[in-house]
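2024-03-11 09:14:02 DEBUG pipeline.ingest accepted 1 chain
2024-03-11 09:14:02 DEBUG pipeline.ingest length=325
2024-03-11 09:14:03 DEBUG pipeline.predict start
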Amino acid sequence: MNARQLEIFHAVMRSGTITGAAAFLRVTQPAVSKAVRAMERSLGFRLFRTIRGRLYPTPEAERLLPDADRIMSEFSAFQRLTGEVRTGGAGLVRAVASSACATALLPRAVTLFQKTNPAVRIASQLLSARSVAEAVAAGEADFGLALSPVQLPGLSVRTLGAAEMVLIAPTGHPLLERDVVTPPDLAPHPLISFGGETHFGRLLDQAFDSSGVRRVIGLQVTMSLVAACYVQQGVGVALVDSFTLPLGLSGLGWRPFRPTVLLPVTLMAEGSHALSRHAAGLVAAVEQVLEGSAPSPAGDTVRALPGLSPGRRAPRPASRSQASR
């Protein structure tokens, strides 16, 4: 099967009809039918059968499809690359990121990057941490960002900075009267949190165990942003990554959580290729955002981040109250 035949086979399999494949490939229906018959003669087995006027792939064709998907995806990536090389590499930066990095960190970095690179196009996709690593390893993205570390052969991995787990609660919640929230403080309150099988959940279990408290999950989630939405509805309180704070979620306050739980921001890139100039520029913008996004340390006055109040405090003497404004 040559490259053109593979393209036709893939189109027929994905469209489900000879007519659909012909329209996608912009060729005639007889040309597709002829190519399919030629493929079958060359391979020595049937790829499709027609039953009551409908086309059905054979088991042999179904077995070939996953590899055909992979090859066509790699070919599409190669075509994009040749286009970028032809235009001097100025056209596109492809970034993939897991939840918090995709919804909070990367958008702020792109805004910063495009101030000096307005002509560069950005393609951004939200994936699970594992899928981020796989996309980068397959050459489908220039780089990836995640808070859950993933190692795959051929990947270059380094830490750019870190997010910190913080408590969020509805405005006026008694936990917001505290300077710092600890595992024992959370025991009486319904906790929205991550399952123990996740990276975030394992880190939180360690933090609770070190305080001699068992982490009891009232509602299990997989993303900090989803947890925040439940907190907004009064379902409970949550421990989320600090990147969630500037997202403009109304009616919520936050406090530092101790013991400190840090979530390293992991950059993943292909180990055999240096980042393009523009991809490296976007990564540098991510690092700039990270430098200015750390929450206040324990014991310091808790500052509000954009879009999220640190919550109301108990009345204090005038001098301390003024200092905290």
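2024-03-11 09:14:41 DEBUG pipeline.report Residues 294-325 have pLDDT under 50 and may be disordered.
2024-03-11 09:14:41 DEBUG pipeline.predict end
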